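User: Hey, quick favor. My workstation is busy. Could you predict this chain's structure for me?
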Amino acid sequence: MPNREQGTGSREQFRLDGATAPVILSEAQRSRGPRRQVFFAGVNSRRICGCFSFASVQQLVAFAGVAALLFIAGCRQDMQDQPKIISQRGSEMFADHRGARPQVMNTVARGQLREDSYFYTGVVQGANGYREEKELMPFPVTLDVLKRGQERFNIYCTPCHSRVGNGLGEIVERGYKPAANLHDQVRLTQPISHYFYVMTHGYGAMPDYAAQLTPVDRWAVAAYIRALQLSQAAKVDDVPSGVQVRSLQDIATDLGHAEYAQPWTLPDSAVQARAHDASQGTPALAPANSADPAIKIPATKPAPAAK
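Assistant: No problem, here it is.
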């Protein structure tokens, strides 16, 4: 029986798992002499490449390993691991471990100087230390300012106060608490900055409109309210000479809506928290206060006798 050195047309191929696999060789392959081919386990005894030896595979694996190391070394994480402060998280950078830093003392953020406090608050500090409203606009009132105030008033104020400011808006007719009548005695005697303050902070059932109206727009609306009050109480003598004056009833009749000039009444659907004071107009905020309420301070001890 011929041995392996003589060649029988069959040679053994050694796989990495230790098993052997016989392969039938041609005459040309037999003439080259015996040689071994390396196979990986689980490849169904197929050759990797006819020209690859075990040493070549080792070199290839080593080269791939070096390339992988170079690739990993190039993927540095400096951008992800950079020292930065994330909102609402602690920080080891500061002694108090707070990431959100307090404002530096005696500094003002950009755009928040607000040096003119009256423009942003509508009040000044009175002699007694309390805030005080003023009959003063922080900037000149022009026709453009009044037009802007009228536009903002018609958008945000008329649903409750109506176009003429008598407190009989559409929302009130549908059951909301009656709004202030801007033409009663209390509102006529209030300084103009009072309206700015109310629009900023709200009053009673009225919410604030600081989010809807900028400070400039709030002052424009306050100026228009004052002009609206003058218009509803105007006399013929207030009109410049040479200007024709027509009554509202005549204008409404010409337009085919004579009912527009009739007195407005509070509908039955409106909610009155308390009975209003007729001297304050209809409707009036309850309880109605006089224009100059008396201030009574109870005496804690008897006054000294006059000398």
